[in-house]
Amino acid sequence: MGEEPYLANVAKLGNNFLLVSMLEALSEAFIFTQKNGIEPQSFLDVISTFFGSPIYDNYGSIMVNEEFEPAGFKMSLGLKDTHLALEAAQEADASLPLAELAKEHFSKGVENGLEDLDWQR
């Protein structure tokens, strides 16, 4: 990532931010399509064909099957990492509106006692 060791942390936060953003969008897409009459598994099949990504396949399957326990990555950890990314963004004078939205959703989940469930719950 460069000469400075802290850049590895920035890259890790950037990677986690991409996952958080994908989870946010994927969740909203499932809600949108399901409320319009499409079965979640059918939509996941479309996503898998269109994106061809193991990330979408794995997280999409967890969402479709509602397998949030045991957590692969706890919601409380997603909140922590999102908070860290927002702090780093603020220091760099960068705006992360999707991270703000995800932080709000993670915070609500933690407040509702879901901190130990998978972060995509």
UniProtKB/TrEMBL annotation:
Organism of origin: Tetragenococcus koreensis
MF terms (GO), sorted A to Z: NAD binding
SUPFAM superfamilies: 6-phosphogluconate dehydrogenase C-terminal domain-like (SSF48179)
Higher taxonomy: Bacteria, Bacillati, Bacillota, Bacilli, Lactobacillales
Every 3-hydroxyisobutyrate dehydrogenase-like NAD-binding domain range: 9-118
Name under which the protein is recorded: 3-hydroxyisobutyrate dehydrogenase-like NAD-binding domain-containing protein
InterPro entries the UniProt entry points to: 6-PGluconate_DH-like_C_sf, 6PGD_dom2, HIBADH-like_NADP-bd, HIBADH-related_NP60_sf
UniProt cross-references to Pfam families, sorted A to Z: NAD_binding_11
